[in-house]
Design brief:
By secondary structure, the chain is an alpha+beta fold. The protein is built from 3 helices and 8 strands. The strands form 4 sheets. A two-stranded antiparallel ribbon has the order 1-5. A two-stranded antiparallel sheet has the order 2-3.
Length: about 130
């Protein structure tokens, strides 16, 4: 008779463990979706801030604007475009290829550690 009680107790522990695992998995999925939504909203805000800035409102980047932007540190760029996230400013041609920034001969300008289609932000043209 003692073994039947032990089997029932083990089954209960397994059931509670599975239930807790399901609860943890559920909340993890909810948190992940929320983080993705937050990131999408942040991208929209950053893009709006960049496009509204005086440097970009005429759809051209003049030499002095490029010089000013390329000399800014990552933290200064974050302050300029009102974000806490790392960012990289880069240009693409009509085919989606990354175009080097002409004066400083680099692919993009911004925070180190970011990649543009596998190319590190701010890397020199080879």
């Amino acid at each position: 008779m003692g073994k039947k009680g032990q089997t029932l107790a083990v089954d209960s522990y397994v059931a509670v463990g599975i239930f807790l695992l399901a609860v943890i998995l559920f909340f993890s999925i909810i948190a992940l979706r929320s983080a993705r939504l937050d990131m999408k909203n942040e991208v929209k805000i950053i893009t709006g801030n960049v496009m509204a800035h005086a440097y970009f409102n005429d759809n051209t980047l003049e030499g002095y604007e490029e010089t000013v932007l390329s000399n800014l540190t990552c933290d200064e760029l974050k302050d300029l475009f009102e974000t806490n996230n790392n960012l990289c400013i880069y240009f693409e041609d009509s085919d989606g290829n990354v175009v080097p920034i002409s004066r400083n001969q680099k692919y993009g300008m911004g925070c180190p550690g970011l990649n543009i289609s596998g190319t590190p932000c701010g890397s020199n043209i080879e």
